[in-house]
């Protein structure tokens, strides 16, 4: 059976090793009614990781359940081909219903704990959504003048917080116009700008560095990595702080997490109070930064609530969280079409009308592979070991191992080899064969299985950059030119980071309204390219 990517409402998988289906390979089961059960989410909770590529729904005796990948859950009620047939690709599509779902979680967190949640604009700053988001959030968090202004203009009745690694003399007066809270990164900056800020009636804060790393393997996202410029360590605080300067302060700020759960916050909070508890006791508020993956399925919300409630009770501090991702997680898509298909060293390469370098720069910077509707990302490092526990396990166990290892957080880099090994063997068993060997990173495609080989495509952009590659994906059919593909989780760190390298146009931005209307928010033209250049 061959299905068009956009025809299907759920991910069509090859049969599970334990599923008995007659007929020759490849077996693609006809699309069954999609039952999105909460099982994935529940299981994830114990695993601490989301079913980000939540693929195979498991087989429960006679009942087959299939989970639409979690990033696309909100689209399950639509015929995707129909929905997007008139959009000009590439384009981003913001999903109003998904924002509301995230917003509800964040709102109830605030109501239950008294903590305030701000949108970190660096992750998502499409202000068309700001009136909606202001119903759920306490305000915005900016990284400098322009974001502060945007927050003030587009969420006018809400709080504007600004943190910058270093404020500029020629901007600070204007920052004061928009900000309610100003957080400095050094005692020197606090001494320099704090008195003016305080005089202007602003809440003045200092970012501290609790020197507690809870993430491994990607220093680029770890503000506590040795040598970090972000935040004042206790040693420096003691050396540079004086009484007069301290009197300017009304709060402290730390930001140490990245796509992490509440257990990492718990560790950080302990380190913070060990190092700065005596200081915090004398102040009014504490901002605990971003990186809290609060709206991710399986996130430990009860623990977060407990942490917030206990700190407030013990220290009387007003608490702030400023997540970016959690506000817009899984709330956007990037639609693209296949412009051409070329071949090299055994690879099928689809040249898309979107560019990783221009439209999803994090894919190259991190690097990571974004979720793609009805396709499975694959990397080069793993081999399928048929003797793994996953292959030998029951269906229920298999499902667990799929979702537990299936995490693909945006910033955390590509799916881990271990994760892929089990996930792929679970999903594809021996069918997968050599397909996952040596496919990424320039090695020839050594997949000897003609079926998987013909359905594995390297997705790449139209720019001149040889590395403008999104990655290798296994499809349930052979891709064709002009086909529509849909990347998921594309609201965060995408639109706000895009560029026109090679003169490639910026993608249009659509809003998928709750009622199913698709509204064009913004289109770009040659003028947007030229206007920035002279
Ligand atoms: C100071 C600060 N606050 C908040 C955030 C938002 O983080 P996230 O989008 O991961 O929640 C960041 C991200 O780098 C940050 O540097």
Can you tell me about this structure?
The chain is of the alpha/beta class and 534 residues long. The chain folds into two domains: 19-93 and 329-404 and 416-520, Lyase, Ornithine Decarboxylase, Chain A, domain 1; 98-327, TIM Barrel (Alpha-Beta Barrel), CATH 3.20.20.10. It has 19 helices and 19 strands. It has helices at 39-47, 80-83, 96-113, 130-133, 145-154, 169-178, 187-199, 234-240, 243-246, 262-280, 301-315, 325-328, 356-359, 361-365, 389-392, 395-405, 417-428, 450-454, 526-530; strands at residues 56-60, 63-66, 91-95, 116-120, 139-142, 159-163, 181-184, 203-207, 251-253, 285-287, 318-321, 332-344, 347-352, 375-378, 456-460, 469-475, 484-488, 508-512, 518-522. The strands form three sheets. Strands 3, 12, 13, 14, 15, 16, 17, 18 and 19 form a nine-stranded mixed β-sheet that branches. Strand 4, helix 4 (130-133) and strand 5 (139-142) form a beta-alpha-beta unit. Helix 1 (39-47) packs across helix 16 and helix 10 packs parallel to helix 11 (301-315). The longest helix has 19 residues, at 262-280. It starts with 38 loop residues before the first helix and ends with a helix. Residues 1-67, 381-408 and 412-441 have low confidence and may be disordered. Bound molecules: pyridoxal-5'-phosphate. The site of pyridoxal-5'-phosphate has 15 residues, from helix 12.
